[in-house]
Design brief:
The complex is a heterodimer of chains A (about 375) and B (about 120). Chain A has helices spanning about 1-20, 25-80, 85-100, 105-120, 125-135, 140-145, 150-165, 170-175, 185-195, 205, 215-225, 245-255, 265-270, 275-285, 295-300, 305-320, 325-330, 335-350, 350-360, 365-375, 380. Chain A has about 375 residues and is an all-alpha fold. In chain A, helix 16 (about 305-320) packs parallel to helix 18. Chain A is extended and about 105 Å long. The model of chain A has no long low-confidence stretch (mean pLDDT about 90). A 5-stranded parallel β-sheet of chain B has the order 2-1-3-4-5, with helices on both faces. In chain B, helix 3 (about 60-70) links the parallel strand 3 (about 50-55) and strand 4. The chains are: A mainly alpha (about 375), B alpha/beta (about 120). At the A-B interface, helix 2, helix 4 and helix 5 of A face helix 1 and helix 5 of B.
Chain lengths: ~375, ~120
């Protein structure tokens, strides 16, 4: 080893003093570049290597704790499922979990994750038991601390945990993140507020100024489906929101809860500046089968854009009251192909009467329109 | 009721173990698989009285496994219960069309799960 050291230091000294100094400036710079690149690459490799070793270590530790925690929880869940459990039983589970090194963040987090999994997948007594255990071990404090983290994903996790276990009083804190620049945190804050708030779970809609993407709307609906004892407000309250996605979401909620009292406010949206809002409003008439408002749609038709016109035709086809068949018949002469096509489909949706009209029309139609009608009447396509 | 042999195919270990514990507690013999391919090879190698299937599984999903079971003349009469987080109408209908005997949507009550299993085993 000593020999190698002397050899290397001798070689480097000789190289620097006798050769490197004699090199032209450009070669010196090239050597320096090669040396820096080599050093930086080596450091990067080392960093990646140590990170992977660390991850593997944490992974193996996690698996070990996960298996142990699963053992405790699975046994407890089954043990108390068929019996009426008492406070002592909850205490016993909590004591078993307390035997774990709960001072370690990773262990606390695995326990929370496992409890949350059980809470999400089982209903009934198990669900209440799990919430009680979470509170008794004081894991809500762990989640509350996470809410103060500067990392957005830790905050999002905290919101998910606190809302899953129904910590109602913390819900107002979630409102701070409703308009976070980080879309995941913002969606989690909205879902969390809806899930956890007891008094007014929809108030986040007052603050939300970002686009509520469709995926998020589905998640919110899913939470609503699971939430019990919730007071449903009149969703027309948000029809005046400046956020168009909130208006669209509230129209969908209005339809879901069949709020016919809100229809008067819904009609006002016919003059909304946003096309998507108007389309959703038109579709709502069909989804709620509002027969009395079919005429409104036909009057409104002339001033509408093509996508909204098509939505109106589809809605009339969905309502199929037979009152607007003449309106649809006239549309078969419209210069726009899509309108003629949708009108033929809407007539067909009126059942036997619609089919009869289409058959009667066949003789007097142009070749192109006849093809459209024959296509619509094809039973193989409509099956 | 005689001891029945049940196979649980579920990738979430906590869920798999909870169902296993519950079924054992109800007096059944339980075998488990954590992904589709192992599940199918276990079905081919053993004779089960009932199969519990999750839908979202690695390698082969629950509906694909169900189709394989129903295509196999020797196994097609084994009752199958689908346990899934997705309650989507299309998925449920697809499951029943392929021949599933029951569909349990998560979250569910464990005692209800036991009753459904017992009822299905008795009727078969």
């Amino acid at each position: 080893m000593e020999k190698l050291y002397f050899f290397l230091s001798g070689f480097l000294t000789d190289f620097y003093e006798n050769r490197f100094q004699a090199y032209p400036q450009i070669v010196k710079i090239a050597y320096a570049g090669i040396f820096i690149s080599f050093t930086v690459t080596s450091l990067c490799y080392l960093l990646v290597y140590f990170r992977r070793v660390n991850q593997a270590y944490i992974g193996s530790k996690t698996d070990k704790w996960k298996a142990e925690i699963e053992n405790i929880l699975t046994g407890s869940v089954i043990q108390f499922n068929s019996e009426d459990y008492q406070q002592e039983d909850i205490t016993e589970i909590a004591e078993n979990l307390r035997k774990l090194p709960m001072h370690k963040y990773i262990v606390r987090q695995i326990v929370v994750n496992e409890l949350m999994f059980l809470h999400k997948n089982f209903s009934g007594k198990v669900n209440i038991l799990i919430s009680s255990v979470y509170l008794l071990i004081g894991l809500d404090k762990h989640s509350r601390r996470k809410l103060k983290s500067w990392r957005w994903y830790i905050k999002a996790e905290a919101i998910e945990e606190l809302s899953e276990f129904g910590i109602h009083e913390i819900a107002p804190h979630f409102l701070k993140y409703v308009n976070s620049k980080n879309i995941t945190l913002s969606m989690q804050a909205q879902s969390g507020y809806l899930q956890a708030s007891k008094t007014d779970p929809f108030i986040f809609l007052d603050y939300a100024n970002q686009n509520l993407i469709l995926w998020h709307q589905i998640n919110l609906m899913e939470i609503l489906n699971r939430k019990k004892d919730i007071e449903i407000p009149a969703f027309s309250k948000w029809f005046t929101s400046k956020n168009n996605s909130v208006v669209i979401f509230c129209i969908r909620l209005m339809v879901k809860f069949n709020q016919t009292d809100c229809v008067k406010d819904l009609i006002k949206l016919a003059h909304h500046e946003n096309e998507e809002v108007r389309k959703e409003m038109i579709a709502a008439f069909g989804d709620m089968s509002l027969v009395d408002y079919e005429l409104h749609l036909t009057i409104h038709f002339r001033n509408e854009t093509l996508p909204c016109k098509i939505e109106i035709i589809k809605t009339i086809g969905k309502i199929a009251s037979n009152d607007e068949l003449n309106f649809l018949k006239n549309l078969l002469l419209d210069p726009e192909f899509q309108i003629r096509f949708e009108a033929a489909k809407a007539i067909r949706k009126h059942g036997e009467k619609g089919e009869m009209i289409l058959f009667d029309l066949l003789e007097n139609l142009s070749v192109e329109n006849r093809d459209v009608v024959l296509h619509v009447l094809d039973s193989k396509l409509s099956a | 009721m005689k001891k029945s042999k049940i196979l649980v195919i579920e990738d979430e270990s906590l869920m798999n173990r909870t169902m296993e514990f519950q079924l054992k507690k109800d007096g059944h013999e339980v075998d488990t698989a954590f992904e589709g391919k192992t599940g199918v090879s276990k079905i081919e190698a053993n004779q089960y009285d009932l199969i519990i299937l999750d839908i979202m599984l690695p390698y082969l999903n629950g509906l694909e496994i169900l189709a394989k079971i129903k295509q196999n003349p020797a196994k097609k009469n084994i009752p199958v219960i689908i346990v899934s987080a997705t309650g989507l109408e299309d998925t449920v209908l697809e499951g029943f069309k392929l021949g599933a005997n029951d569909f349990i949507t998560k979250p569910f009550i464990l005692s209800e799960f036991s009753i459904r299993i017992r009822r299905l085993l008795l009727s078969n």
